[in-house]
Predict the structure.
Amino acid sequence: MRQIRWGWVAVAALPVIFIGYFFVYPLMRILALGLSELSIGASGVEARLFRVGWFTLWQAIVSTVLTFLAAAPLTWAVSSYRFKGRRLAMALTTVPFVMPTVVVGAAFLAMGWRESIGAILVAHVFFNVAVVVRTVSTLWSRIDPRIQEGARVLGASEWQVFRRITLPLLRPAMAAAASIVFLFTFTSFGVVLILGGFRYATLEVEIYRQAVTLFDLPLAAALAIVQLVGVGGALYWYSRYQERTAVSWTLERGSNLRRPKGRARIGVAFATLGTLLALAVPLSTLISRSLAGSYYPALFREDPIVGVPVFSAVNSLFFAVAATVLATIIGVLAATVIVGRTGDMSRWFDLTLMLPLGTSAVTIGFGFIVALDWPIDIRASRWLVPAAHALVAVPFVVRSTVPTLRSVPTETRDAASVLGASPFRVWREIDLPIVSRAAMVGAAFAFVISLGEFGATSFVARPASATIPTMIFRLLSRPGQSSLGMAMALSVVLAALTAAVVMTIDRARFGNVGRF
Amino acid sequence: MRHLSRISAPTLIVAMALTACQGEELTEEPDTLTLISHDSFVESAGDTFAPFTEETGIDVELLPAGDAGALVNQAVLSKDNPLADVLFGVDDTFLSRAIDEEIFRAHESAHIDALDEELRQQDDLVTPIDYGDVCFNYDKGWFEDSDLEVPDDLDDLTDPAYASVVTVEHPATSSPGLAFMLATIEHYGEDGWLDWWAEMKEGGVNIANDWNTAYYSDFTRYDGDSSIVMSYASSPPAEVIFADQPPETAPTGVIEAGCYRQVEFAGILEGTEYPESAGQLIDYMLSVEFQEQIPLTWFVFPANNDAELPSEFIEHTTIPESPARLSADEIAENRDRWIDEWIGVMEG
């Protein structure tokens, strides 16, 4: 008889309940409702489905590859060197990630980008560079330099060291970043609507159109399943890949940043300034528009219609803190289960946790409406907002912690157990310190995901408290120069808030935990 | 509550439970009514419902539910266990769907006689609260510097000199875009409307995906290339009110040709426990007191003819005399086909 390990059950319980109640259950309900009315064989549907599906797939792959190319120089610089402004540079790259798509879309159009596939791809890169830089550099900066030095002593060139040693070691983190960027661009909505003109539609856009505008719930459900299958397939491949390529190796306790010397100094300067400049160009149009009048003071004054705009920051911060705490706890517990248990169960669990990132927000949002009045009605609860944000944020915490956790050699844990440590103590003394820094990366993402209002909340009823993005949207949906100016000023406030919060989280260490 | 502290806790609980039961049996007055609506209504509402609460003692809780389409969908999806007592914000383009799904309960408002007869709906299943006219706006400054006259007829616009400086929104992704497409159908009829669009395409008309892009990216007033964009009759007053230094006259004007009237309705949701109070809330929304707050709060026009317009709306805009309007049934029946035909001409 197989013995049930109650310890694992306890660790897994919270993530399982969370993902079950807030994702699997509403998803099943809404898909069942949609599919029960489906009539197969409507004319022309298959052709359209194929066209939309194919576009969704290839633009996501190209966007992911381009994002990696664009992120490479800065990732190299911040992973290898310690230099002035390094932390600031990393925080600033995160800013585009939270910018509302309507604002970035307007900025791109103002720069002269017309609706085209090129504009979509460039915008995708702009939004997602931070994902690659942050996810990959966490691991890269902690590769034991002795391995590389050893190779160099044995006569390998810099390039050989990078290709033969650094790159293979980075594979898990690169795959993690790639999977996230792929899912984000695969389910791209606002960017495609605004910058794609009306010629391009991703599955996400098509699901919204069918469900919300045309009321064709059955077709929307069918499309949602196509999307789920695509996302599920990509994730399955990814999780197999990650298991195959994971190697245990000793992570340095701190990061091994050197001061750049000689040619490296020029490289670092170019990589950092170049990336920041490229990211700053679209943002500069909002800054200049926000400065065209006295719009910043206006943010603090009572507006006859939307109230005091800057108060929305209070709501945003409240939701963001709640979502971050929730996502970090659930993500770290889940990562512990995924790494600790091998086999199919663990793989499926991992996959299910990632799915919300690749599921259309309309599907989840409408799922909430039909499902979450049981066992108690929480459909209009204040807490539904952080829960929905956490649903999108948990994968970030999991993806940034799993590679690090996998790299802890099992012998270390075994040794501790042999010496009499309880499983909890092993986790606290060995896993937690190692994992906390990676979890911080995930927590930072959770925070900005919530600040940026990602996920299902924009499609469902929710408490009447405006957040920064909804306030920006509100200002932008009325005519008038000062409406535009205030919206731009508030976007700049959101950018500054994001940078400040990310820098603070990057510095944060809890007591001894995280100080290696 | 300090004076109650001597009474034992069990007694208190029993007493409270009894009062609660009695409350339900004796009166049908709720403490709170929930009003579900689209985001833009809720986010601007401020304390516009305070007089209702003062008068009746009933709080009004506002629940934003995304855009107008998402709002109706949620009401339909939750009809067995509704999220609210009253829904506001369904317009002609979504009304059929809501009525077919039987989510509303009829209510004849006490102020129904103050409405234009043509705004009323069959059986009073929903009550009209406001309307907005979707109209072309033009940039006054641009036309002053150019040789062109401001056009006053849809036929004029097909001239490439005009067509190339016109931006309209896509009917499949934008509500003013859909409204304007309907206006051309009403104006030219089923036989002629696509020809007009074909000529516009030939002349170089610009299509934007949403109002935001059309107004803030494509309009010459905001550094775009189009001096005529599809917006609202209330946009020029908004340009005056939301300006850094309010100008004497509005910098933009309304072209009467091609206007379409969108009416927004409120209805009692079937399944509410308090239909009578819900009816009172709808009556309040149609009262002069509430109606006169509508223009400067939501930038649409009051449905109640007794409500007076604020001066900004009288000075800075034109209310079209005979805007186009199609019935909800006609729209529901043909909308998908019309959009497909439109796409066929404009994207083919």
Remarks:
- Residues 1-26 of chain B have pLDDT under 50 and may be disordered.
